[in-house]
User: Which sequence fits this backbone?
């Protein structure tokens, strides 16, 4: 689980554009960072097929599915501190998406990016705890 660490007015298209735009204006990646992006209105956009790796967590992309919601930081404050600002629509869409993915991958563990890298706050909530019942 990831957050985009940006404004909730961004779209999945904005995130993909940033990931694939050459440096220094973007990340310069060939493949975007997420398989799925959940926009603020709850719309789920499939970016990369789950049969292909995306660029969400360095060193783990060959065996994970990267799901991101747009938001996760307080854009009104300096330093963009982490905040769980998922909209009700995002929370509902994320749960439905993860329930569906668990049907195909029943042994999968749902964790946050921060569980791979303790220096990260992403996704700005405890995904392991929140989705423990799925």
Assistant:
């Amino acid at each position: 689980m990831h957050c985009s660490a940006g404004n909730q007015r961004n779209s999945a298209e904005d995130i993909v554009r940033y990931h694939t735009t050459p440096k220094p204006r973007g990340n310069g990646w060939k493949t975007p960072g997420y398989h799925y992006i959940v926009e603020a209105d709850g719309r789920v956009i499939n970016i990369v097929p789950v049969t292909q790796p995306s660029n969400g967590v360095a060193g783990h992309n060959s065996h994970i599915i990267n799901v991101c919601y747009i938001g996760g930081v307080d854009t009104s404050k300096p330093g963009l501190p982490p905040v769980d600002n998922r909209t009700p629509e995002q929370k509902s869409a994320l749960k439905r998406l993860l329930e569906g993915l668990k049907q195909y991958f029943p042994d999968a563990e749902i964790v946050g990016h921060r569980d791979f890298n303790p220096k990260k706050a992403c996704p700005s909530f405890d995904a392991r705890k929140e989705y423990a019942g799925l």
